[in-house]
């Protein structure tokens, strides 16, 4: 659906935000995972035609057997695109209904009846119908993000890009939001950029991990997890012993359980007595790739 080849971008301050990024993004939910500063937003903004790349290509299947050049044919991409930026702002004194209507006009829905139908349908889809006449300033974070999705879906996009949408949402709102995304992902390509690993585990049949502008891994989460099988070990350690473990082993993560650190270590063999093998999860994959990249760097 979306083919990205060797996309690079260096900002004026010398930061390589995108370093030969190559990705194939199919229909459905695609998770783009990476820590702060990985380059996720730079990639999202480039695909959303809001900033230029220095080199490389990105093309989108146009649904009619052809491909749209995202970097050159911006108007054509915008007709197929829905975008929810990281810092989506709303006019606080306007109702959800009025602002969505306004966005619909901007999107080119000029026929009044048709526009009303689309807007009403979207407000129902994102579960904001009952509060459509309330001012957006009084909306919770989750409601605001669902409104953000409604505006992204105007014009029936084939590519939907959402940039870190679940940051700051409470667990219930987050679930609700992710379920909504999953429904949308049944018909179109949805790129979900996030630093929350579970967002990807729970939802995305395919994904990529980025760090410092580079793609470290791409594929199916289940395959990436399978590749770590029998190589992740767990141990509860004394606080005083933690430093030694961090020095001697490839520690993927440290978590306090009942006040004591529990570490996950990546190793082909049992690192030492007291370690038990655990089934790897996507968080182990994520940290293993980041550690490996840091080591190589
Ligand atoms: N306009 C800009 N000018 C200079 N440097 C920038 C600019 N935008 C981003 N950067 C830098 O480029 C790198 C990648 O940033 P980007 O926002 O794409 O990462 P990210 O993965 O989305 O991180 P975050 O989760 O913090 O948004 C960072 O080092 C950032 O400081």
UniProtKB/TrEMBL annotation:
* MF terms in GO: ATP binding
Q: Pfam families annotated for this entry?
A: ABC_tran
Keywords for this protein: ATP-binding, Nucleotide-binding, Transport
Q: Which InterPro entries match?
A: AAA+_ATPase, ABC_transporter-like_ATP-bd, ABC_transporter-like_CS, P-loop_NTPase
* Entry-linked Gene3D superfamilies: P-loop containing nucleotide triphosphate hydrolases (3.40.50.300)
**Is Nucleotide-binding set as a keyword in this record?**
yes
Residue span, ABC transporter domain: 2-237
**SMART domains to which the protein is assigned, alphabetical:** AAA
Q: Which domain of life is it from?
A: Bacteria
UniProt KW Membrane keyword: no
Q: Which family does it belong to?
A: Belongs to the ABC transporter superfamily.
Under what name is this protein listed?
ABC transporter ATP-binding protein
Q: Which species is listed as the source? A: Lysobacter hankyongensis
